[in-house]
């Protein structure tokens, strides 16, 4: 019946409705003498004569003669929906409609102007001759605690990313440093064929523990511990800033290329801290395996490097660090964001993702990150631990390594890296998400 009525309505509005017979069409239009089979169809037709169209679209105010036409019209807006309700995930074609809908949930009418702290019971305050400049947002107090947390989770906050990233970095270091020690020792062991200190990942692990105990796996952790929290804090801050710069609206979904560029920006930001920290860490890890104690700790190492050759010695290997971190960070964050969206069930928010899925997304992101980061990392480790003057630059390191050990040398420490990558980065992203949720709960307005 509804389909038949819709068809009749279309024909009436298009002027193509055909009368059947006087017996079937008993209802006569007093204006044009057309007959219709029911009073309801006649009533719809009669409105076309009177100009009365009581059914209006709440989005664009366009008027229609019947509810079925109005429903079909709403589908046009549905295709353009970008604004989603934080309470029920219902979508709207513009921010005004969304705000009006949210008031149904809250039962309040409090709006706050983004340019001044004046609250208003209507949206009129935000309108005026400078509409392009003024913007209106719902007052956080009108959403309640759950609504505030959901809105905070959708909004990108570089400051929250900074704090949560520092906590995630500490989790990454605690989970991954032992295998990082093994990786560096495998990459920098003597090159002579007749003298191989470690035959593989397990052999390096066994010899390190037997000679130095379990604490030997955490040698050189002081420098990265002092640097990893701010490093990851700056990394997540850079990623959040990159996303914020490319988003016109918090509800806008970024494209893969935009996420990749945001991750690349994070790689640029972290190099300032990573380069000297990696230099000191590698020197301490290598001296522990060689048995020659030259530096008593991270601070002593940094001071002596500065005294001997200045700040350039502390930042030795910065270009290689950039080559390693910029593209790898782009892929790192792109993979994590893509997998989070892929693993989120339909109808749920990404912020509600379960712990096992966060661990899976973070672990896979870490593995792909090191897939492209390992060759420049091998070059960086050799360059930073070599005696001053041994290599003239990046090309010389690459040429020497390929000549002495072949292409496989670029993936030395492969097993240790990939054994470390999954648990370390899974722990990092889990720590980040837990800290971010805590911040959204404690300070949703940040």
Structure description:
The longest helix is centred in the middle third of the chain and has 35 residues, at 256-290. Mean pLDDT is 75; it is low at 14-22 and 108-145. Strand 1 and strand 2 (35-36) form a beta hairpin. The chain has helices at 2-14, 39-50, 67-78, 95-106, 144-154, 158-188, 201-212, 222-246, 256-290, 298-309, 311-314, 318-343, 355-385, 394-405, 414-442, and strands at residues 27-28, 35-36, 55-56, 63-64, 83-84, 91-92, 111-113, 119-120, 136-138. It is mainly alpha-helical. It contains 15 helices and nine strands.
What value does the Rg take, in angstroms?
A: 32 Å
**CATH fold topology of the largest domain:** Mitochondrial carrier fold
Q: What gap, in angstroms, lies between the N and C termini?
A: 54 Å
CATH class of the largest domain: Mainly Alpha
Mean of residue pLDDT values: 75
Q: Widest sheet: strand order?
A: 8-7-9
Features of the shown structure:
446 residues, mainly alpha, Double Stranded RNA Binding Domain, Mitochondrial carrier fold, 3 domains, three-stranded antiparallel beta sheet, two-stranded antiparallel ribbon, 15 helices, 9 strands, 62% helix, mitochondrion, transmembrane helix, O-acyl-L-carnitine transmembrane transporter activity, MCP_dom_sf, transport
